[in-house]
Amino acid sequence: MKKVNKAAIASLVLTLTTGVLLTGCGNNGDKNAAASHAPEDNNAPKEKVVLDFWTFWGSETRRPLIEKIIDDFNKAHEGKIEVKHSYYPYGDIWTKALAQTAAGNPPDVIVNSIEEAGLRAAKKQNTNLAEFLAKDPDVKDRFREDLWNTVLYKDDPYALPFTTDTRMMFYNKTAFKEAGLDPDKFPATWDELEQVAMKLDKKDAKGKYTQIGYAPQFAGFDAKSIAVNFDGGNGWLDDNGKANISTPNKIEGFNYVQRYTDRLGQKTIDEFKAAFGSKEANPFIAGKVAIWPDAVTFATQIRDFGKGMDVGIAPIPETKPGAGHWSAGGGFVVEIPAGAKHPAESWEFIKYLTDTAAQTYWAKMNYDNVANVQASNDPELIKDPIYKASVDNLTNTRVYPRPAAAADLFKMLDPQVDAILQKKVTPQEGLDQAQKDISDLIAQNGG
Amino acid sequence: MSLERKDALWGYVFVLPWIVGFLVFTFGPLLFSLYASFTNYDITSQMDWVGIRNYRNMFTHDSLFWKSLHNTLYYVLFNVPLTTFAALLLAVTMNQKIPGMRIFRTVFYLPSVLAGVAVFYLWMMLLNPSTGLVNMALGWVGIDGPAWMTDPNWTKPAVILMKLWGAGGGMLLYLAALQGVPEHLYEAAELDGASPIRRFWHVTVPMITPVIFFELVTNLIGAFQIFQEGYVMVQDQSTPGSPMNSLLFFNLHMFLKAFQSFQMGYATAMAWFLFIVVIVLTLINMALSKLWVHYEGGDNR
Fold first, then answer.
1. In this complex, is the C-beta atom of B25 within 8 Å of any C-beta atom belonging to chain A?
2. What is the spatial distance between Cα A159 and Cα A332, in angstroms, rounded to a whole number?
3. Predicted complex: ipTM over 0.85
4. Any alpha helices (H) in A38-163, and if so which ranges?
5. A408 and B43 in contact by Cβ < 8 A?
6. In the prediction, which pLDDT does B300 show?
7. Is residue A154 within 8 angstroms of chain B, CB to CB?
């Protein structure tokens, strides 16, 4: 029995020590990693600081661009700051960063959505940049005012805007000519657009649609955006953060969308939608849909996959002359997650990312609308008529921030919108319900 | 110390690493989430005690909670009996002694081996209303198939249909059980003049009830955990659960609450609610099993 016990004890000790070692290693590993990452920490400030920069730009077009920008920064800060690029897929990146932030080991700089910069600030997920801005007050003047406002929380900035975007109407000039329309004149109002759209519809011998002129159900300016356009560009929340949903103008916007559903039939719309592809099979590029609202970066798709297409671009229509060609935009900011170890160096880096040189390069190579006003008005860039049109369109474009109290806004609104579009409820009923749900939500969250 | 107690002690000492592992990595987080469900925990900025507010809001202020619960129950109600039955049917068919049966078994088991998201994309193609194989086949018999994944009335049936495809996993268990049914029982029944259907109902089914029971319990628990389908099989990737939240399953709603609205406290309260529902259903299942599950080895199992 004694022998057995000895063996037992031996193996037990082995198991336990392995366990301890493994868990111990885990901890030490972390410390070591952190240490080797930044051995210089506070005690040796002269040594090089390594920053971990997270983006979701991993595609073959975007990755080389951001890495070139990083490279230039690294060369200019040789021996002082070195930025490392980490790519994580879109969506995953923020869940992962959130977990790392909660665990006290966040990335140094991250690209995140512009609409929720204030929400993240309220949740203490990013770093207050006020003290850095106080030293570099000019940085603020780089950006359009409404973009700058999106990064403020209680009057302090928590991020710097990097890119923005805007939606416009792309149209197929060849299809316009075939239908006997003037290819250089795009309808200015929604009613005119509907007339033009009908002329662009094509059916086969059996009466099935082979080409649809325009349907609001497709592409990048959806029924919700149309409703906001109809409502003079006023979003789903008013300036005080209260629900602003069931307004007569927004209801009118949905009525407009339903005119298309009635004319084309839900089934036609569904079938068209289900067959949509990307690249060459994009319905606009493939000639299935003649008018296609989308973010202006869609122009790169046409450039790459729609060789030889004759395409025009025009602002989003308005309800009546003078009502405003309101468009919606989004974008991304660069920010320093809360608890990051080198905020001063990170500030240097995000300042550089939003400065004219880096922004001009990004805009040129990517066709993106950048946040830096000087960069987006670069003389060489605005030689391109489409890019120029997009920059001009920014004055009609609004970005709608989502505050903490209404974080679930669209989860409440979207099903009502779906129900309206599927004609299960009237626009009035659906929006009234959403108004009630979202007011309740905001009240629950103390907004 | 007696020898027996000494041995028992050594036994415990040996399983200690796993007990510690369970306490630290499973039971600890479980308790933490129970505590978090009574707070306004948002992962980064706050964790204040709010009493039962999360639970109260869940029942009185969150229409999506009921919607997602309804979606999940709908799925469970159809999915569990259908897959259990389909797997059993498949196993009985695959239990015939004819040449080439191994190939058929492999073919039917294959879908259970394929990885999740790829299968979802495959099915989104199959269910395409105009070009998909499913509607094409329905067209041959004169049925004008629905817009499966875009019509909110058809999204859940579409997912249930897709899940039936994976019945091969359950089939394997039934097949093993079927082969364990002693031949002499069939012979005796046959001598007594029992028809094949009666032989199936009175010999086969009772003999494999433990496996049916096992399948039922695990399928039920698995079905309540449905999540990915609503997250991935949507027309618009930016609105999980669409159209009209028809695929907003309970766990999906919970996930979105936790990681998009940062209401982790609320999400943990939802998790505990689901946990209790599943526990209660499983206990009922266990209690009912005494009435119909037959264990060959005796009653004290």
1. no
2. 10
3. no
4. 62-76, 92-102, 117-122, 130-135, 145-150
5. no
6. 52
7. no
B37 within a domain of the structure (yes/no): no
DSSP result, A203-227: E-TTS-EEEBS--TTSTTS-HHHHH
Of B131, B149, B152, the CB nearest to A422: B152
Q: Tell whether B235 lies on the interface with A, counting CB pairs under 8 A.
A: yes
Task: Report yes or no: A286 at the B interface, CB cutoff 8 Å.
Answer: no
Phi/psi zone of residue A155: left (φ > 0), alpha (ψ -120 to 50 degrees), beta? left
**With contacts defined as CB-CB under 8 Å, which chain B residues touch A124?**
44-45
| Residue B42 belongs to some domain of the structure | no
Interface test with A, best of B44, B45, B154 (most A CBs within 10 A): B44
Between CA A421 and CA B71 the distance in angstroms is: 21
DSSP β-bridge partners for residue A203: A209
Using the predicted structure, report yes or no on whether residue A401 has a pLDDT greater than 50: yes
Domain A49-165+330-399 listed as CATH 3.40.190.10: yes
Q: At residue B142, what is the residue type?
A: G
H or E segment and range at residue A297: none
Cβ–Cβ below 8 Å for A122 and B239: no
**pLDDT, mean of residues A236-251:** 93
Whether residue B4 is contained in a domain is answered as no
Q: Of B61, B152, B262, which is closest to A444 when you measure between CB atoms?
A: B61
Q: What is the pLDDT of residues A319-336, one digit of tens each?
A: 999 999 999 999 999 999
B interface test, pick of A414, A439, A442 with most B CB neighbours within 10 Å:
A414
* Span A253-274, average pLDDT: 90
Contact A230, A253 (CB under 8 A): yes
Quote the strand ranges of chain B, DSSP E.
Answer: none
The CATH number of the domain holding residue B272 is: 1.10.3720.10
> Domain range spanning residue B246?
58-292
Question: Does the pLDDT at position A155 exceed 90?
Answer: yes
Pairing mode, if any, of strands A49-55 and A202-203? unpaired
Domain count for chain B, please give it.
1
Closest to B41 (Cα-Cα) out of B228, B225, B269? B269
pLDDT tens string B152-163:
889 999 999 999
Closest A-chain CA to B21: A19
CB–CB of A85/A67 below 8 Å?
yes
User: Helix, strand, or coil here: B201?
Assistant: helix
Please check whether residue B259 touches A, CB under 8 A. Answer: yes
Could you tell me if residue B270 is inside a domain?
Answer: yes
User: CA B283, CA B276: separation in Å to the nearest integer?
Assistant: 10
* pLDDT, tens digit (0-9, with 9 covering 90-100), for B105-132: 899 898 888 877 888 889 988 998 878 8
What are the sequence ranges of the domains in chain A?
A: 49-165+330-399, 167-328+403-444
Domains A49-165+330-399 and A167-328+403-444 share a fold: yes
- Segment A279-289 mean pLDDT: 91
pLDDT attached to residue A23:
43
Tens digit of each residue's pLDDT (9 = 90 or more) over B22-72: 999 999 999 999 999 999 999 888 999 999 999 998 998 888 899 999 999
Locate the chain B residue with the closest alpha carbon to A222. B236
Is residue B36 within 8 angstroms of chain A, CB to CB? Answer: no
Instruction: Report the residue of B61, B244, B256 to disrupt the A interface, i.e. the one with the largest count of A CBs within 10 Å.
Output: B244
- Cβ-Cβ pairs closer than 8 A, A with B, add up to 87
Select the residue from B23, B43, B128, B144 to test the A interface by mutation, using most A Cβ atoms within 10 A.
B43
Of A102, A119, A419, the CB nearest to B43: A102
Asked whether the beta carbons of residue A15 and residue B242 sit closer than 8 angstroms, the reply is no
Q: Which residue in B has a C-alpha nearest to residue A106's C-alpha?
A: B44
A72 and A372 Cβ atoms separated by less than 8 Å = no
Domain at A167-328+403-444, CATH homologous superfamily? Periplasmic binding protein-like II (3.40.190.10)
